[in-house]
Amino acid sequence: MTSHTTPLLDDIKAMAQLREAHRERWANIKPEYAARMRSQNRFHTGLDIARYTARIMRDDMAAYDADTRQYTQSLGCWHGFIGQQKLIAIKKHFGSTQRRYLYLSGWMVAALRSEFGPLPDQSMHEKTSVADLIAELYIFLKQADARELNALFRAHDEAKSAGDQSKAQALLAQIDGFETHIVPIIADIDAGFGNAEATYLLAKKFIEAGACCIQLENQVSDEKQCGHQDGKVTVPHEDFIAKINAVRYAFLELGVDDGVIVARTDSLGAGLTKQIAVTHTPGDLGDQYNAFLDGDFIDSAEEIDNGDVVIKCEGKLKRLKRLASGLYQFKPGSGEDRVVLDCITSLQNGADLLWIETEKPHVGQIAQMVNRVREVVPDAKLVYNNSPSFNWTLNFRQQVFDAWEKEGKDVSAYARDKLMGQEYDDTELAQLADEWTRNFQRDASRDAGIFHHLITLPTYHTAALSTDNLAKGYFGDDGMLAYVAGVQRKEIRQGIATVKHQDMAGSNIGDDHKEFFHGEAALKAGGKDNTMNQFG
């Protein structure tokens, strides 16, 4: 999507009039240079970004409602440079950033960005580090804009100097129609890092840094666990609704009226709660929550022992099962029903999108829950975690195995529990499983209401894998060839912009600015002795 800017020639004229108003005091200021610099910085604040990207996301949600093939995607990025390279790659390969977002994972902030060092995903990291990463990502994306536009300006100057007016006009059209690298970020606020007031204050930091979309989960803040770990503890709906309200108020206070809230439920894998919900009448929201609590119905107060907790539920006395930690257990097998109630309640109380944390990537399982939600809220749709915590290969091979077995197909050549084995890689089952994996996002968006597909921490894994490969070769027999053949040669042949790392870091932009500021006295870095010239 192209960010709205004044056409370059019109802005140059406006700058010329402004300079003229200041007469000789601004004689050194060239209107063309000022207009270029303004074009290269299209977003002045994080709030500018949040308002711009919120509109994109709302338009994308409407497009998905009309056609489920119009789903959106993102990858989680733990550093501004990683996010920048992702968007540069998307523009290079697909020509547009449309329907491609960034995801900011609390897991990766905890593991990679905390001053305490690597931490588990339990809300122990500094909460402001998430907002800092949002700001950092947008700094790098803005720099990608500046760099690409700078190259267009240089090419435009060369075309004019060569007298090629046709090429110069074409380049000017590219500049005016430039598509920014700025895209929506879905930002993970965990369980809010405290009470509703703490959630509101932190949400403001997120939004001021540029976030148009905040993901909030229904776990107890001080008992927070990664969605793919055990020991998760959820809160009653009233507590969660208060935090949804807090985030909405933060958006409205800051003028991001169409900000997006993703309500995440961990109830499918959470068997515990810290609180008994407040209830006033049978069947109200609190009573529905309490009905899921595990316990035994008793006939009289004489059956109550010291320390027992008893509630009235379903018209009877129920003695609740309580752990030594003071936490209460939910009934076994109640997870899906709790997820459906969570989702309906969140959407009816201000959330825009849902996140159902599941234990495996299974279209049928997701669709079963979403279809129940849609019976009450027809336009319900999901943000879904295509998680690296799933063993995708084993999961889909087992799904194919189960489908074949149900169809009556002979599966005697396969050991279901050992399907991860390399010996199965070339089999018909493995090839079909790969095809199901390839189509998972398309199928799930069509059949299970998934608007946005993300992978939370892919770049955590890619960084580890590429570093392992380089270290194995470089410190082994290959020596320098490991870098040359494994990295640099591929960068050159695949057109990866970082091969000119000085330019990527801003040296050409800096050289042009030196000319703007110093004129002919500018001391530039990009002359004939710059070794970056070896890369053409």
From TrEMBL:
SUPFAM superfamilies: Phosphoenolpyruvate/pyruvate domain. It catalyses: D-threo-isocitrate = glyoxylate + succinate. Keywords: Lyase, Metal-binding. GO terms for molecular function: isocitrate lyase activity. Pfam families: ICL. It comes from the Bacteria. This is Isocitrate lyase. It comes from Halomonas dongshanensis.
